[in-house]
UniProtKB/TrEMBL annotation:
Identification of the protein by name: Putative pterin-4-alpha-carbinolamine dehydratase
UniProt-listed Enzyme Commission number(s): 4.2.1.96
Enzyme class: lyase
Lineage: Bacteria, Pseudomonadati, Pseudomonadota, Alphaproteobacteria, Rhodobacterales
GO terms assigned for molecular function: 4-alpha-hydroxytetrahydrobiopterin dehydratase activity
């Protein structure tokens, strides 16, 4: 973790640390595809604005998100910031 972010707030919010500790993950569940994709669309606009993009998978109302800073090879404050934004948008 190059910028040694404080993970406590996002872990308390339901994110989990990957086994290699280089990413945080969370699964969101929405009532249907439109709600899930609406969330993804709102999150995508923030991701693009901040030039920090999620790795994610969607299946109907489910959105599995992994956040890591590929350029840093691990977690940075950018992941925490996007995680908190995604929670606010969900
Ligand atoms: C060229 C551009 O700045 C990079 O590809 C950005 C874009 N979004 C990114 N998102 C994430 N999560 N990690 C990165 O390293 C990253 N790099």
């Amino acid at each position: 973790m190059s910028e040694t972010p404080d993970l406590a707030p996002v872990l308390a919010a339901g994110w989990s640390l990957s086994a290699d500790q280089r990413a945080i993950c969370k699964t969101y569940r929405f009532p249907d595809f439109v709600a899930a994709f609406g969330f993804m669309t709102r999150a995508a606009l923030w991701a693009e604005k901040w030039n920090h993009h999620p790795d994610w998978r969607n299946s109907y109302g489910l959105v599995e998100v992994t956040l890591t800073s590929h350029d840093a090879g691990g977690l940075t404050a950018r992941d925490l910031k996007l995680a908190q934004k995604m929670d606010a948008l969900a």
